[in-house]
Specification:
The structure is a single chain. 37% of the residues lie in helices and 26% in strands. The strands form seven sheets. Strands 2-1-11-10-7-8 form a six-stranded antiparallel beta sheet, with no helix packed on it. Strands 4-3-5-6-9 form a five-stranded mixed beta sheet, with no helix packed on it. It contains 14 helices and 31 strands. It is of the alpha+beta class.
Length: 643
């Protein structure tokens, strides 16, 4: 059998016959004359397990059980209910077995009376009840403020106190960070901690009780005790494993309520439970801080990671991404609403099935992206991480390295052939020269002149081969390319012919570069002639020079040369081959296929770079970058003389 007892002077007791509807409506099983109570506020049912369950019937103010708003809960013996302004205690008669019995008298509500004369048994019962109330109060509470409120309410439930205060300290000090107070009766006087008592319990880490606080010598200096007129006072530390988190203080204002040692034991037990709960909360907070710091550390790493990372769910919807991933998605992704359907022309499923060891390269304009994916190990929420990496520079470097290897092989072969061929040409040229000077007939001299001219051209070709293979002797000088190109303007104009025009845009006082002057002539002549051959209709060729860089280690000074034409352009699939030796797009006869290969060899030999920007039908622009020389001419002359 269960009973509800009103917690007020002269309060009524109601025997529960389930189901029992409680409300303000006269038709309810228990009628409460309280304007804050709904017409049908709650219903209490007895379950098959003999437990009682209370359910809120969508009331206006809800039901509070031990200070917590709960729409539905299983009641336990001693639970305090608040419906509107009405306070009730749930009493389960079977919970107390003889010699302990619950006595609910008419008149002011008191603590359950215990039958029998065994004080030890009564004390043990109260200890168990205090522990039970404390554990129930803070078992699920995660906030220090909530723990303070609940342990103070639990203390009031087992100890007859008029006022109470809980103060939780700031970390590493005795300054109050959280303060909670409670009164049994309404009042206006402030509730303050006794600093004298607080210092004592914190120092000794044990509770203190004063049965007559006003006359106690130890509290003579406590202004709060004498101002309020406290009759009885006790204070306990809230601590766990040598860490004091705060204190709890209870007092009485009437001489009829005097705290006893067993009250201090009960309060100490509640405070110890609160100390353990606070230690757990602090530990949880520390773990959450560590977890948050680790999360932020990972996010910082992901934010600066050059590889794009995109997390998608099973439906193909974006879950998360880093900045590099978002940048790649803006160039590659096709969406159908919120769903990602394609990446760079690849179906999403194909991307999902591409492991990192078989990454796919996708060309998007001038950029190359490597795409792969890794499925999540979480079977509950299937997802995949897609990795998007801009590998344009890497692929370009790999292509250059491959070209350099091929050039090295061809260069070694060309060098050997050029030396042998040069020896043969020496004999041919000398024989032709001898015949031309021998006084033979005109026909013979004409033939000998043709042989000599062919030999001279072959000698120039041999020199070009030696330059390409880097076997010819070089005379390194500091050269102002703007000045050198200006000297060659007439020669370059003749090389273009009357059909095309040459436009110079040369920067004055250009930083010098270290290069062989003959190589300067070779590279600019090859590029201009290459531009001429690319233009079938009349067109223009621009030669530009300018400098870049501020001279710092991160941005060294560089000299940039550009040769641009209005020719037929270069197809994208052939741009990777134009610097290969003997590769030519010209019809058979006019070209050797060594012009651009020679330019590439010269630029690479001085530590520079060459790039081509072109589209078929839209002309071509060759960009040369050469490191500027920081050595002055006097120092260079000294080095040359020393050599």
């Amino acid at each position: 059998m269960a009973t509800l007892v009103e917690l007020r002077p002269g309060g009524r007791s109601f025997i529960l016959h389930t189901p029992c509807v409680i409300g303000r409506d006269p038709g309810c099983d228990i009628v409460l004359d309280d304007p804050k109570v709904s017409r049908q506020h709650v219903i209490i049912r007895q379950l098959q397990t003999d437990c009682y369950r209370i359910t809120d019937l969508d009331s206006r103010s809800g039901v509070f059980i031990n200070g917590t708003l709960l729409p539905d809960a299983e009641l336990e013996h001693g639970d305090q209910l608040r419906l509107g302004h009405t306070h009730l205690r749930f009493v389960l008669a079977d919970a107390l077995t003889p010699p302990i019995a619950l006595n609910v008298p008419r008149g002011p509500i008191t603590e359950p009376a215990v039958a029998g004369t065994d004080d030890h048994l009564k004390r043990e019962y109260n200890r168990l009840r205090a522990a039970h109330q404390a554990h129930r109060a803070i078992g699920t509470e995660q906030r220090p403020e909530g723990i303070a409120e609940r342990i103070l309410a639990a203390a009031f439930d087992v100890v007859s106190a008029d006022r109470g205060i809980v103060s939780l300290f700031e970390s590493g000090s005795n300054l109050a960070a959280v303060t909670v107070t409670q009164r049994r009766e309404p009042g206006t006087e402030p509730i303050r901690l006794s600093q004298t008592l607080t210092d004592f319990v914190v120092r000794d880490r044990r509770g203190a009780i004063f049965t007559d606080a006003v006359d106690d010598e130890r509290l003579k200096k406590s202004s709060s005790v004498h101002t309020i007129g406290m009759r009885s006072l006790m204070c306990v530390p809230i601590a766990h494993e040598h860490v004091v988190y705060g204190v709890m203080q209870l007092d009485t204002l009437q001489a009829t309520h005097i705290f006893q040692e067993q009250d201090l034991e009960l309060l100490t037990m509640i405070a110890q439970t609160a100390g353990l709960a606070l230690a757990n909360v602090m530990l949880r907070g520390t773990l959450e801080q560590l977890r948050e710091r680790e999360r932020l550390r990972v996010l910082r790493i992901l934010d600066v990671l050059p590889t794009g990372l995109v997390l998608i769910n099973a439906a193909g919807e974006l879950v998360a991404h880093n900045p590099a991933g978002l940048s790649a998605l803006n160039q590659l992704a096709d969406f159908d609403g919120q769903q990602l359907v394609r990446l760079g022309g690849l179906a999403l499923q194909q991307v999902r099935d591409t492991p990192p060891e078989r990454a796919i390269d996708i060309n998007v304009g001038d950029l190359i992206f490597s795409i792969c994916a890794r499925a999540s190990d979480d079977t509950d929420t299937p997802s995949a991480v897609i990795m998007l990496q801009d590998v344009t520079r890497r692929r370009t470097a790999e292509a250059r390295a491959g070209l350099a290897d091929r050039l090295a092989v061809v260069g070694r072969v060309a060098s050997g052939l050029a030396h042998d061929f040069n020896n043969l040409l020496t004999v041919v040229n000398e024989g032709a020269s001898y015949v031309m000077q021998s006084g033979s007939g005109p026909d013979v001299i004409t033939e000998a002149s043709a042989i000599y001219e062919a030999g001279r051209r072959a000698t120039a070709l041999v020199r070009q081969l030696l330059t390409f293979s880097r076997q010819d002797p070089q005379v390194i000088q500091q050269i102002d390319l703007s000045e050198e190109f200006g000297k060659m303007q007439a020669l370059l104009t003749r090389a273009l012919g009357d059909k095309h025009s040459l436009v110079f845009e040369l920067e004055k006082d250009l930083p010098a570069v270290l290069i062989d002057p003959t190589h300067v002539q070779q590279l600019i002549m090859n590029l201009v002639v290459n531009a001429k051959d690319a233009m079938q209709a009349p067109g223009r060729v621009w030669v530009r020079t300018h400098s870049a860089g501020d001279g710092s280690a991160e941005d060294p000074i560089r000299v940039l040369v550009e040769v641009e034409d209005e020719g037929c352009g270069i197809p994208l699939d052939l741009q990777g081959r134009i610097f290969e030796p003997f590769f030519s797009r010209k019809r058979q006869g006019p070209g050797t296929g060594l012009g651009l290969a020679t330019v590439y060899g010269i630029i690479e030999g001085v530590g520079g770079e060459i790039e081509v920007h072109s589209r078929e039908g839209a002309g071509a622009r060759f960009c040369l970058t050469l490191p500027a020389s920081l050595r002055d001419r006097a120092a260079l002359a000294v080095e040359s003389n020393a050599e």
